[in-house]
Amino acid sequence: METRVKWLDNMSFVGESGSGHSVVMDGPPEAGGRNLGVRPMEMLLLGLGGCASFDVVSMLKKGKQDLIDCEVQITAERAETEPKVFTRIHLHFVLSGNNLSEARVKRAIELSAEKYCSASIMLGKTAEVTHDYQIA
User: Fold this and answer.
1) How far is residue 57's CA from residue 70's CA, in Å, rounded to a whole number?
2) pLDDT tens, residue by residue, 58-71
3) H or E element that contains 119
4) Mind listing the pLDDT tens digit for each residue in 88-128?
5) Closest CA to 121 of 38, 58, 47
6) Within a 10 A sphere around the Cβ of 124, how many other Cβ atoms?
7) What is the pTM assigned to this prediction?
C-alpha cells in the first residue's frame, strides 16, 4: 500500500491514495491554515470509522441480515500535552434493518474490534477504544 501527501500552500495538503483518490487536509486559521479540509487527526478517526463499518456491514450481509443503514458516530479525547495522541475513542454504531438480530450485530462489532479492524487495534495501543450500538 502506498500513499502520497503533497504540500499545497500555507498549511494545506492533498493526500493521494494508491487507489487513485484524493483528499484535502488543512489546519485551522490559528495554525496558519485556511480551514479548507479535514484535520489530519480527524482523518485517523474517519479511517477508523470506515474500517470498523466495513467490517460490520460485511459480516452482517454475509450473515444474511437485512441491513438498511449503518452509521458510526465517533468521539475521541486527546492528551493535553505533546504528542497529543488519542487517549479515549468511542464508536457508537446506529444500525437499522428488517428483523436485525441483536446477537449478530453485537458479535459483528466485537469481531471488528478484537480481530479484524486494523485501525481500531492500532489505535488501541495508545487509546482506550470502546464500542456500543443501537438498533433503530
Assistant:
1) 7
2) 999 999 999 999 99
3) helix 118-123
4) 999 999 999 999 999 999 999 999 999 999 999 999 999 99
5) 47
6) 16
7) 0.93
Q: Is the dihedral of CA 45, 50, 56, 59 positive or negative?
A: negative
**Considering only CA atoms, which of 74, 73, 70 is closest in space to residue 57?**
70
For residue 55, the tally of other CB atoms under 10 A from its CB is 20
Preceding amide of 40 cis, omega within 30? no
Q: State how far Cα 86 lies from the chain centre.
A: 13
DSSP code at position 31:
G
Query: Which cell numbers hold the place of 46?
Result: 474517519
Beta bridge partners of 17: 3
Q: Please give the grid coordinates belonging to residue 71.
A: 452509521
Q: In whole angstroms, what is the distance from residue 55 CA to residue 64 CA?
A: 14
CA dihedral 31, 36, 39, 40 (to 10 degrees): -100
- Give tens-digit pLDDT for 6-59: 999 999 999 999 999 999 999 999 999 999 999 999 999 999 999 999 999 999
Domains of the chain plus CATH, in order, are 1-38 (2.20.25), 40-135 (3.30.300.20)
